[in-house]
Structures are given as C-alpha cells and as structure tokens.
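Much of what follows relies on a compact textual record of a protein's fold. A record is reproduced here so that you can trace the correspondence yourselves:

. . .
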Amino acid sequence: MNRRAFVSALACVALPAAPAFAHEGHDHKLLGTITEITAARMVVRATKDGAVSTVSIVATTKITRGKTKIAAADLKVGDRVVVNIGNGKAPLTAKAVQAGPAPTTR
C-alpha cells in the first residue's frame, strides 16, 4: 500500500470518530464576582474578561460556601463565585454555586 492510499484509509477511519472527542455534554463554569442578586437571579462579572452574565437561581440550585450548604439569601454582592451553568446556553440557569470564603472583618 502506498503512502497516499494509507493516509486516505486512515482519514476514512479517523474522521467519523472525531465527534466522539468533542466536549459536548460537559458543564460550563462561570467564575466571577456577584454584582447584583435577588432570590431568583444573580448577575456575575466574569473574572477573566469582565463580561456580565445574568444567571437564574432555581429550587434545584445547590449553593455552598466551602463544604457547607447555604441559602441563596446568604449570597451577597461582592462574593466571588464559581457557577456551574450547565450547557452554557441561554437562558443561563445555575446548577450549582460555590461561594468563596466569607470576607473577614477586622
């Protein structure tokens, strides 16, 4: 088998398998700081690029600070968070929110 035929055969086998290596179905995360918050939604300014995203908070959203489960009412403007936004498609809904440590008072 010459080189051209081998490369063609390899491409025919490898190309159909390529979608299997894509990252479809993984959860996206939003890292940033809360700039607004209500019982039903929060606005987060991304740490990396400063983009602002509105994320819905629903009854099934798991909210923690460290390993402790907290309520949405415990989140405050200025808290640093990591938000699991599922597939990352609009409308954004929080599957989980991990709040950074509470600010220390001096």
